[in-house]
Each structure stands twice: as structure tokens, then as C-alpha cells.
């Protein structure tokens, strides 16, 4: 069903969809489901969940295998300012791993460009472009990058992510000035720190396409096995499988080809640090 054209329907989830762990939320924002509306009740029934094309999942509470925050989205918008607040490469790299794990296309938005010089922006822009990520430089007061961003979002499902204060709400307001919806208000209502409440919402865009806003995305850890993390650092790929030890974690082992690549400046120190800190947190 095309959500953009369909009437909204209130539906209950059939009990059999909760087989296994009853605490696991089986339906995520963006899911496509089969429903039955031919019931003499005030709400229809969700009968089954269709296969997910992509998913953004995070490490869940104890006892639950995974927590899917958003499914079937195509683009992960990673908003990061260089100043005010300062650029956090660790967070950007986490989001890149999440996009890679879930099959989403990452789009890095370097926001608030009016507060930084070209000399500050260019190295970051070049690093992430070299990793195959589309990078857009934006500034709301200078209207910079907005037309390109609007075009990239047209007719596609995007998920908004990024640290608090980087300018997500301002960007959406500047992209769609006549739009009545105030994206980004959700995070204030739900309150940071209460990780169990996820109020994700998907909004149809005035120009076609959808945007998903979820406070759960802002500070999450991607769902990935530590031994598979290196595959999601794309520039590590040419070196994988060549370390002295099978299953090398590339941290303390001798004769590690990844560490050699860092010394030879084929992998940046910054990305290697992100890898190690994410590995340690998993
Ligand atoms: N100089 C400058 N300031 C900006 C720009 N975009 C946003 N701001 C300012 O940055 C502050 C935070 O912007 P928001 O849009 O609220 O940031 P947010 O990412 O939605 O923050 P949360 O909702 O807390 O996650 C506001 O004071 C904005 O006016 C920009 O391009 N340039
Ligand atoms: Mg906001
Ligand atoms: Zn290694």
C-alpha cells in the first residue's frame, strides 16, 4: 500500500506476531504490513509483517535480540556541525556503521558552514567523500546547500540523525518553510535517557518522500558484532584477512595490517580511533 495516498487506519497487532519475546516491539516505523479491515470492530488487525528492505537497529535492552528503530528507509541523514557544537567524528562514524549494517545510504550534512572556514571544512569533506559518502555543506542563514539537499530527499524515505543542537530542526524548517510540521519536537517530549520510550514518527514531505524523526537515533549504538565491525569501516576492506592472527581485532595484536596501514597513513588516525572506541563499547 502506498502510505502517501492511503487513509490512516487504526490497527491492533495480532498476538501471533509476538511469538518469542513479548517485550520486543515487532513493528517499527516504516514497516509494511498486511492488514485486515473487514472486522466489525473499531480497529483493524495487522496480520503479518512484510520483509524489511533496510533497517536501523540498535543494541536493545537485556533479553531482547534487537530493537529496530526504523525500517525500509533509504537514506540516513547524518547532520553534524563543525562548531557550536563541535564536530564529533566518533558519532558520525557510528552512524556510518549503522547505515552500512542496515543497508541505508549515508548522507553527511556538514551544517552551520557559516561558522567555519573552508580550511576547517575541506579536510572533513574530503575524508568522508573518499569513504564513498555523499557530503553536503549547508548553512541556514546563507541558504547554502539547501536546494541540493531538498533534491536528494525527493521521493525517498530519509531518517534524520545527529547530535542535539547541530541544526536538524532549523534545516527542515528552511527546506520546507510552509510546512506545518515541527520536526524535532519529539526529543523534548520523550526526554533523553529514557531509552525504552521510542517515539519515532514518519512524516510525508510536501514534495514527495518521507522523513522519519526519532529521538532514539540521536545517541544510539549500532547493532553489530565486534568481530564484524571492521567490515563496516569501508577503507579497512582492502586489508582485511591479511593480519597475522585470524580474527585479529586490530587493537593489541602484533603484525596487524590495519595498524600498519594507519602508520603508513592509508587509514586516518581519526577513523582508527573511532573503530577502537566503538569496538570497546560493543
Ligand atoms: N550559525 C548557524 N546557526 C544555526 C544554523 N542552523 C541552526 N542554527 C542554530 O543552532 C541552534 C540549534 O538548532 P536546532 O535546529 O534547534 O538544532 P537541532 O539539531 O534540531 O537540536 P535538537 O532538537 O536539540 O536535537 C539554534 O539556535 C539555531 O538557530 C546554521 O546553519 N548556522
Ligand atoms: Mg530539533
Ligand atoms: Zn589486524
Provide a descriptive summary of the structure in words.
The chain has 282 residues and is of the alpha/beta class. It has two domains: 69-217, P-loop containing nucleotide triphosphate hydrolases (Rossmann fold, 3-Layer(aba) Sandwich); 226-281, Probable gtpase engc, domain 3 (Ribonucleotide Reductase Protein R1, domain 1). It contains seven helices and eleven strands. It has helices at residues 89-102, 118-130, 146-153, 168-175, 186-190, 257-263, 269-281; strands at 11-13, 33-36, 44-49, 55-58, 67-71, 75-81, 105-111, 134-137, 157-161, 201-204, 210-213. The strands form three sheets. Strands 8-7-6-9-11-10 form a six-stranded mixed beta sheet, with helices on both faces. It has a three-stranded mixed beta sheet with strand order 1-3-2, with no helix packed on it. Helix 1 packs across helix 7 (269-281). 32% of the residues are buried. Residues 185-197 have low confidence and may be disordered. It binds guanosine-5'-triphosphate, magnesium ion and zinc ion (ZN). The site of guanosine-5'-triphosphate has 17 residues, from helix 4. Magnesium ion is lined by residues 168-169, 184.
Task: Describe the structure using short key phrases.
flat; alpha/beta; 7 helices; binds zinc ion; binds guanosine-5'-triphosphate; 282 residues; Rossmann fold; three-stranded mixed β-sheet; binds magnesium ion; 11 strands; Ribonucleotide Reductase Protein R1, domain 1; single chain; six-stranded mixed β-sheet; 2 domains
Amino acid at each position: 500500500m502506498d502510505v502517501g495516498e492511503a487513509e490512516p487506519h487504526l490497527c491492533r497487532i495480532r498476538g501471533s506476531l509476538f511469538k518469542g519475546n513479548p517485550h520486543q516491539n515487532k513493528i517499527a516505523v516504516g514497516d509494511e504490513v498486511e492488514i485486515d479491515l473487514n472486522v466489525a470492530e473499531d480497529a483493524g488487525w495487522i496480520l503479518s509483517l512484510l520483509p524489511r528492505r533496510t533497517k536501523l537497529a540498535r543494541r536493545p535492552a537485556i533479553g531482547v535480540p534487537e530493537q529496530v528503530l526504523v525500517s525500509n528507509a533509504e537514506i540516513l541523514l547524518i547532520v553534524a556541525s563543525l562548531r557550536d557544537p563541535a564536530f564529533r567524528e566518533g558519532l558520525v562514524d557510528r552512524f556510518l556503521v549503522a547505515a552500512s549494517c542496515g543497508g541505508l545510504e549515508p548522507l553527511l550534512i556538514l551544517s552551520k558552514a557559516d561558522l567555519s572556514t573552508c580550511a576547517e571544512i575541506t579536510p572533513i569533506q574530503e575524508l568522508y567523500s573518499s569513504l564513498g559518502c555523499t557530503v553536503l555543506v549547508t548553512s541556514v542563514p546563507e541558504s547554502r546547500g539547501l536546494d541540493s539537499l531538498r533534491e536528494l530527499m525527493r521521493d525517498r524515505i530519509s531518517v534524520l540523525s545527529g547530535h542535539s543542537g547541530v541544526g536538524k530542526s532549523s534545516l527542515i524548517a528552511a527546506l520546507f518553510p510552509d510546512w506545518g510540521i515541527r520536526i524535532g519536537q519529539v526529543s523534548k517530549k520523550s526526554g533523553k535517557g529514557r531509552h525504552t520510550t521510542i517515539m519515532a514518527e514518519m512524516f510525508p514531505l510536501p514534495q514527495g518522500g518521507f522523513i522519519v524523526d526519532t529521538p532514539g537515533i540521536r545517541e544510539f549504538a549500532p547493532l553489530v558484532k565486534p568481530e564484524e565491525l571492521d567490515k563496516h569501516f569501508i577503507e579497512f576492506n582492502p586489508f582485511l584477512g591479511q593480519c597475522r592472527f585470524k580474527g585479529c581485532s586490530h587493537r593489541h595484536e602484533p603484525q596487524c595490517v590495519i595498524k600498519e596501514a594507519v602508520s603508513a597513513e592509508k587509514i586516518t588516525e581519526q577513523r582508527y580511533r573511532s573503530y577502537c572506541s566503538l569496538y570497546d563499547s560493543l
